[in-house]
From TrEMBL, chain A:
Residues 15-190 form the Transketolase-like pyrimidine-binding domain. Its cofactor is thiamine diphosphate. SMART domains: Transket_pyr. This is 3-methyl-2-oxobutanoate dehydrogenase (2-methylpropanoyl-transferring). Keywords: Oxidoreductase. Pfam families: Transket_pyr (PF02779), Transketolase_C (PF02780).
From TrEMBL, chain B:
The gene is Bckdha. Residues 106-405 form the Dehydrogenase E1 component domain. It is an enzyme of class 1 (oxidoreductase). This is 2-oxoisovalerate dehydrogenase subunit alpha. It comes from the Eukaryota. PANTHER family: 2-OXOISOVALERATE DEHYDROGENASE SUBUNIT ALPHA, MITOCHONDRIAL. Belongs to the BCKDHA family. It comes from Microtus ochrogaster (Prairie vole). Keywords: Oxidoreductase, Thiamine pyrophosphate, Transit peptide. Heterotetramer of 2 alpha/BCKDHA and 2 beta chains/BCKDHB that forms the branched-chain alpha-keto acid decarboxylase (E1) component of the BCKD complex. The branched-chain alpha-ketoacid dehydrogenase is a large complex composed of three major building blocks E1, E2 and E3. It is organized around E2, a 24-meric cubic core composed of DBT, to which are associated 6 to 12 copies of E1, and approximately 6 copies of the dehydrogenase E3, a DLD dimer. Interacts with PPM1K. CDD domains: TPP_E1_PDC_ADC_BCADC. InterPro entries: Alpha-ketoacid_DH_E1_comp (IPR050771), DH_E1 (IPR001017), THDP-binding (IPR029061). Signal peptide: none annotated. Transmembrane segments: none annotated. Together with BCKDHB forms the heterotetrameric E1 subunit of the mitochondrial branched-chain alpha-ketoacid dehydrogenase (BCKD) complex. The BCKD complex catalyzes the multi-step oxidative decarboxylation of alpha-ketoacids derived from the branched-chain amino-acids valine, leucine and isoleucine producing CO2 and acyl-CoA which is subsequently utilized to produce energy. The E1 subunit catalyzes the first step with the decarboxylation of the alpha-ketoacid forming an enzyme-product intermediate.
Amino acid sequence: MQPLGTFKIGQTQKMNLFQSITSALDNSLAKDPTAVIFGEDVAFGGVFRCTVGLRDKYGKDRVFNTPLCEQGIVGFGIGIAVTGATAIAEIQFADYIFPAFDQIVNEAAKYRYRSGDLFNCGSLTIRAPWGCVGHGALYHSQCPEAFFAHCPGIKVVIPRSPFQAKGLLLSCIEDKDPCIFFEPKILYRAAVEQVPVEPYKIPLSQAEVIQEGSDVTLVAWGTQVHVIREVASMAREKLGVSCEIIDLRTITPWDMDTVCKSVIKTGRLLISHEAPLTGGFASEISSTVQEECFLNLEAPISRVCGYDTPFPHIFEPFYIPDKWKCYDALRKMINY
Amino acid sequence: MAVAMCMAKIWRPSGGLGQAALLLLRRPGARGLARFHPSRQQQQFPSLDDKPQFPGASAEFVDKLEFIQPNVISGIPIYRVMDRQGQIINPSEDPHLPQEEVLKLYRSMTLLNTMDRILYESQRQGRISFYMTNYGEEGTHVGSAAALDHTDLVFGQYREAGVLMYRDYPLELFMAQCYGNVSDPGKGRQMPVHYGCKERHFVTISSPLATQIPQAVGAAYAAKRANANRIVICYFGEGAASEGDAHAGFNFAATLECPIIFFCRNNGYAISTPTSEQYRGDGIAARGPGYGILSIRVDGNDVFAVYNATREARRRAVAENQPFLIEAMTYRIGHHSTSDDSSAYRSVDEVNYWDKQDHPISRLRQYLLNQGWWDEEQEKTWRKQSRKKVMEAFEQAERKLKPNPNLLFSDVYQEMPTQLRRQQESLARHLQTYGEHYPLDHFDK
C-alpha cells in the first residue's frame, strides 16, 4: 500500500464519506484474509451504510452481526487481535462506546505494556460515528475523544473528508497499536470528493496544515475543520487577517511539533471542537503550546467549544461552536 | 390465498438469508435440531395454523398461568470419578491415565503448593509486595490443563498458576515475575502472580475481573476461522461470573459458534463474599442453558472428573464449533491474597474441613498409593526435592537486579511516540541530578 508521499492517484471515484469507508474496508478484507468486520447491524450494511455489500462479497464469517453489547464487541475484538488476526469493530454511535470503556482503557491500551510485549492487540480497530448531526441530542451527537486522549496505549483518529477518511482508516487498520476511528456522521452523505479506488495510507500522528497563513493559527479536527476554514475566509475578508489552518487528524498521540511550529510563526492560537470546553482536548493543546511557545504568544490561547452541558436537542444551533463564535473569538484575539 | 399473497408482500426475507435459512434447516449436522434457531424455522410466512409465529422463541402455546420455579434446592448434579478417599466410583469413568501422566499431575500440584507456601511467606517477610495462593484449587488447574492440547490458548483470571506449572513453566520465571526482576518476561510492569507466557500459550493475566471472557471468545472465533484445530479455555471465578463481561462472553460464544471452554472455579468466596451473596440461582452451570450452551458441573477437587469433562468438552468444541461451560466446584482454602485475612469472615473449622477431608492433592495421592505408583519414601524424597528446587529459584530471584528504568517507557505503543521519548529523556536528566534519592542500585544500568 502506498504511503501518501509517493502517491500516484490512479483511478478515482466520486465517493461520499460512508462510501470511502466502505472502500477502505473492502480493500482491507481483500488484502488481509484474517480481517473481519463485526458489530451491531453490520451484516445488512450498517445503519449508516458503511458496510454495504461486504458480507455478500467476503462471506458471513467475515462480516457479521454481534449481539447488542458494546463491552462484548470490543472484548471480542481484542481477543481476535490477540491471535494476530485483524479485527475491525463497529460501535453504532460514539455515544455508546462507554460500556466498552473498561475493555478499551484497562485492556486494549495496556495489553502490550503489561505483558512486556509478549502479547498485544494492535490489529484491533474500533470505528464509531461521531459528532453533531443537527438533531442527534444527547445520545447521537457526542464527541468523546477527550476521554480516550487521557489513555496511553491507544490511538484516536478523526478524518475531515472522504479522501482523508480512507487513508487514515487504512493506516489505523494496519497500525500495530489499537486504534479508535471516529467518523463525523454529518459528513457521511454531505461530504463528497474524488477518492482513489486502490488502497493508500495517510500517516497517523501527523497534523496537516491545510492552508498557510501568518497571523493566527486555527486548529480543529473532523467537521469543525470546515467551520474554521470558513472562519478563515471571513477573517481575510472582514479583517484582512491571514489564518493558518491545521487539521489535527490524530488526537493521540498528537503532532505537537506542527502546531507549535505554526504558533511560533503566527503568535496566536485558536482551537475549536464540538465537545464540551472543560477537559476537552483543546485544553491539552493549549497547555502544551503555552509551555513550548510562551514567549511567542501575542494573545491568550482561545478555545471555542461546546458548552459544559449534555448535547441538547432543540438548542443545538446555540450549543455548537459555529463560525460566528469562532470569528468573534478570533477578532478579540487579533485586537488583544 | 389472496390474504396469504398480500401478507407475503409485506414481509419477505431477503433472498440471501432465505436461501441460507432453508439450507440450514435441511442440513443434518452434528448439532441437528438441538441448536435450533427460531428465525430459521419459518419457511412459509405467515402460517394459518394456530401455532406461535414469533421470531424470538420456538415454543408451544399454554393456557395455564405458571411461573417456572428455579431449582436451587436440588441443583445440577456434580460429576465425580473418585470419592473423597481417591477410590474410583464407577470404573467405566476412570480415564486410565498412564502412571507417568498421573505422577505429572501429582508433581505439578505439589510443586505449586510448595511454591505457594514459600512465596506467601516471602511476602510476609517483605521480600515481594503481594501474592495469591492456589490452595485447594490445584485440581481444577492440572485436571483441565492435562486435557488440553499444548497449543490451546489459555485466558486466566489469576488463580490458575497450576495450568502454567503443568505446562512446565520454570520456577525461575514464576519467581522473576513476582520479584519483578531483570529476568521477568513481563519486564516488571505488573504486580506478582500476573504471569504470561507466549510459548506456552498462556495470555498474560490482568487484574480487572472477567475482562478475559469476551476476549477468549474472540480468540476462539479467530481459531475457528484459521482452522487451527485449536480451542480456547477461559478460567474465571464464580464472583467474576457476575460481571457484565461474563454475560457478554457467554452470549457471543453461543451466537457466534466459538470453540471455547468456559471453566468456572466456584470456590465459595469472592474475597469475603460468599456465594449466597453472589448469586441466587443454581450457580454458574445453570446459566449456560440460558445462553444455549452445553453445561456441566463437576467436583473440582477430583482431578479425573475435571480431566474427563474438559477432555470431552474439548473434543466436541473442536468438532462442533460450539462453547461448553464447566463449573468446577471447589473450595478456596487460602486467603484471597496476602492482603486478606479470611478469619474475619469464615471459621477455621470450615477451612480445616476442606484442607483435611476433601483436598485434590490428598485424593490423588491416595489414588496413586492404591495403584502402587507412589509410597511414603517417594513422598518424602519428592517433598525435599521440590522444596530444594523452589528455594534455589527463590534465592536466585532475590539476588537479581530489577530491570532498567528505561523499560518504564517502552511497549506503550509499538514505536515510542515523540512526547513519551521526551518524558523518558526528562526522567534521565532528573536522575542525573537527584539520582541519590532513588533506589538505582537495585536496578539494571
